[in-house]
């Protein structure tokens, strides 16, 4: 019998897992969470909290309590809505457009925008947009991730401008065209959230560039975040999620 040498494939489980994680782009995660938020919004329409009203006919449903209603934030301390409204929506058009937007935007982001940096910019911008939405008054309501999307969008432009030490007016015109087109040509759009997210992105883009400039100079690459940065961003997101869930449960109990 002839001896045959067989080459066996060996790999480290840890490195194999890391390679898989590296292939998961932030846009994929954002799109999945947006779709999940839409599912929650649709299911939430059928869950009423009769204990919050004199009759079930007038009771709010779960979706109404999870989207941002300025009156509830003002008068009932529903601060969780500033976070939950980023994703929860019962509008298919809104969810679909936002999911497509994050997937398309993902192709144009610099490699520096890894998952950690992406979601740090996304949440800060989205929260800023929701906070600015409060100036619309107590009768205003809003939902959707567009503030965070415009934040990432603006941050990518601002990052490139900081890197090139100049503002490229052709890309600025493109951004303004997309901003005004999506904010004012469509109906029922919260342009204030778009504005707040954009402001956050234009601030955070140069901040990100300055934070990675040294590593780009020394190593020519800055796609990896430090471990403590990953922990801080993850903890911040978890704290917002847990705090929002706790406030919501206390309110409806």
Secondary structure blueprint with pairings:
Blueprint: H1 13-23, H2 26-44, H3 62-66, E1 68-69, H4 70-76, H5 81-84, H6 92-106, H7 115-133, E2 141-142, H8 146-164, H9 169-184, H10 191-219, H11 227-252
List keywords for this structure.
253 residues; mainly alpha; Rhomboid-like fold; globular
Give a brief rundown of this model:
The protein has 253 residues and is mostly helical. 67% of the residues lie in helices and 2% in strands.
Could you explain the architecture of this structure?
The chain has 253 residues and is mainly alpha-helical. It has eleven helices and two strands. It has helices at 13-23, 26-44, 62-66, 70-76, 81-84, 92-106, 115-133, 146-164, 169-184, 191-219, 227-252; strands spanning 68-69, 141-142. Helix 2 packs antiparallel against helix 6. Mean pLDDT is 88; it is low at 1-11.
Instruction: Give the total of domains.
Output: 1
* Strand elements, count: 2
CATH T-level fold name: Rhomboid-like fold
CATH superfamily: Rhomboid-like
Query: How large is the radius of gyration?
Result: 21 Å
Supply the CATH class. Answer: Mainly Alpha
* Chain-averaged pLDDT: 88
Order of helices and strands: HHHEHHHHEHHHH
Overall geometry comes to globular
If classified by CATH, what would the architecture be? Up-down Bundle
Q: Runs with pLDDT <50, length 5+? A: 1-11
Q: Strand order across the biggest sheet?
A: 1-2
Percent of residues in helical segments?
55-70%
């Amino acid at each position: 019998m002839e001896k045959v040498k067989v080459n066996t494939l060996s790999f480290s489980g840890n490195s194999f897992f890391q390679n898989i994680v590296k292939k998961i782009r932030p846009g994929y995660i954002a799109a999945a969470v947006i779709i999940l938020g839409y599912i929650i919004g649709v299911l939430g329409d059928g869950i009423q909290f009769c204990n919050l009203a004199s009759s079930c006919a007038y009771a709010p449903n779960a979706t109404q309590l999870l989207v941002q209603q300025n009156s509830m934030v003002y008068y009932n301390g529903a601060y969780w809505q500033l976070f939950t409204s980023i994703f929860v929506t019962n509008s298919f058009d809104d969810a679909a457009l936002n999911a497509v937007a994050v997937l398309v935007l993902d192709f144009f982001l610099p490699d520096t925008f890894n998952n950690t940096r992406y979601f740090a910019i996304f949440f800060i911008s989205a929260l800023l947009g929701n906070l600015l939405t409060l100036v619309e008054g107590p009768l205003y309501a809003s939902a959707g991730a567009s503030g965070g999307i415009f934040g990432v969008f603006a941050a990518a432009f601002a990052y490139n401008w900081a890197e090139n030490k100049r503002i490229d007016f052709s890309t600025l015109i493109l951004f303004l065209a997309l901003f005004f087109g999506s904010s004012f040509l469509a109906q029922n759009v919260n342009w204030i959230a778009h504005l707040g997210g954009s402001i956050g992105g234009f601030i955070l883009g140069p901040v990100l560039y300055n934070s990675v400039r040294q590593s780009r100079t020394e190593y020519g690459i800055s796609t990896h975040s430090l471990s403590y940065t990953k922990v801080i961003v993850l903890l911040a997101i978890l704290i917002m999620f847990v705090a929002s869930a706790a406030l919501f449960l206390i309110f409806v109990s």
